[in-house]
Amino acid sequence: MRSDQIVSNLIVLDHPLIQHKLTYIRNKNTGTKEFRELVDEVAGLMAFEITRDLPLEEISVETPVTTAKTKTLSGKKIGLIPILRAGLGMVDGILRMIPAAKVGHVGLYRDPQTLKPVEYYIKLPSDIEERELIVIDPMLATGGSANDAIHSLKKRGATNIKLMCLVGAPEGVKVIQDEHPDVDIYLAALDECLNDHGYIVPGLGDAGDRLFGTK
């Protein structure tokens, strides 16, 4: 899987399958079932790139022919932290790639007047300080939710954090880069801007509503 390092800690993934599926995710005529499946698939594809630097160790195994020296993951612990509720739509796709990962949850909603995130729930693995954490949210718009989630994790001892989103706006990317220069940001697409309502343009609409069939 290829990726383009755009600036600093921002990585925009350009794999053809990701870009192809993202086109259908963006399409307003894509129904809930297909939208959910596509988000799940893209999250799994993104997991390949975001785990590129996981450490390996060499072991010996018996093949049907002989003994072979081969590689396995060296036991680095992974934690997935979806931001509720839309982040849930990306978890299963990643878990299929990393089934041993533990899953925590951060509940945030955006105040419609101030556009600021409000935390209403948090439940994390007890050993987050030992884990590489992947914060998951389909949209990086104003950056408020991701910023608050990352601050919450750091306050509780997390030191190794990555952020995975489907699409992001430059405004949100800048917030994370300014507030958390130690956090790598992985996107399937960097979009143009935010509109007056704080939605990403061109974006894909409200990811939570499209995932769960609500309005």
Q: How does this model look, in words?
A:
The chain is globular, with a radius of gyration of 18 Å. It contains six helices and 14 strands. It has helices at residues 16-26, 32-50, 88-97, 144-155, 170-179, 207-212, and strands at residues 3-5, 10-13, 56-62, 67-73, 78-84, 102-103, 105-110, 117-123, 132-136, 139-140, 160-168, 184-190, 193-194, 200-201. Strands 1, 2, 5, 6, 7, 8, 9, 10, 11 and 12 form a ten-stranded mixed β-sheet that branches. By secondary structure, it is α/β, with parallel strands linked by helices. A hairpin with a 6-residue loop joins strand 7 and strand 8.
How would you sum up this structure in a few lines?
With 215 residues, the protein is an alpha/beta fold. The chain is built from six helices and 14 strands. The protein has helices spanning 16-26, 32-50, 88-97, 144-155, 170-179, 207-212; strands at 3-5, 10-13, 56-62, 67-73, 78-84, 102-103, 105-110, 117-123, 132-136, 139-140, 160-168, 184-190, 193-194, 200-201.
SS element count, helices: 6
Rough outline? globular
Distance between the termini: 35 Å
**Helical fraction:** 25-40%
Summing up helix and strand content along with how strands pair, one would put the structural category as alpha/beta
Along the chain, the helix and strand elements come as: EEHHEEEHEEEEEHEHEEEH
Number of strands: 14
Strand content: 25-35%
- Mean pLDDT across residues: 91
Question: What are the segments in which pLDDT stays under 50 over at least 5 consecutive residues?
Answer: 1-6
